[in-house]
Amino acid sequence: MAVRGEAILAELGSLPAHVRADYIHVLETVVRIAPRMWTRRRGVQLQWITLRDGDDAVVAQVDSGELDKHVDRDGPRSARSFAGALREKLGTNRCAALVYGNAVDSRTWGWVLPLLLGQPPRLDTAVMVDVGHRTGARSTFSFPIGYRRLPVRRLRFEEDVHAILRCARNT
Asked: pTM of the entire structure?
């Protein structure tokens, strides 16, 4: 197993059992959904993955402007500005995660500004997942990605993330 996979296992292993189970449930959903929600132009789309109170149903939805009240549109958008939105989501959910690409700050003003500055827009090199739990636990996971060079470009994870999560579930 690669170094990053061992770091993910260590992070998950340090959590209490019920929090770890919720995190793994949410991360499995992220791994399943993120490649389908990726586009070459917009990268990894901002998505909420939530685990509601009282049941094990995981709900995935594309951000519909909820982050706008937490994000300063005058400056680059970054993960630091997502913390307030994550805390707000935990008010009605047991566990919540925000999924985004690590080049989210380069897409603040779309693709036009980087081109005007003479720089090509950056592609995401990792799927970032900020996960919070109602118990107060909060973690950020990074899953490196690449792109297959087939007739249609597809996002793929560089490591076997399914195996890493399976191993974490069994510990």
From this structure: 0.82
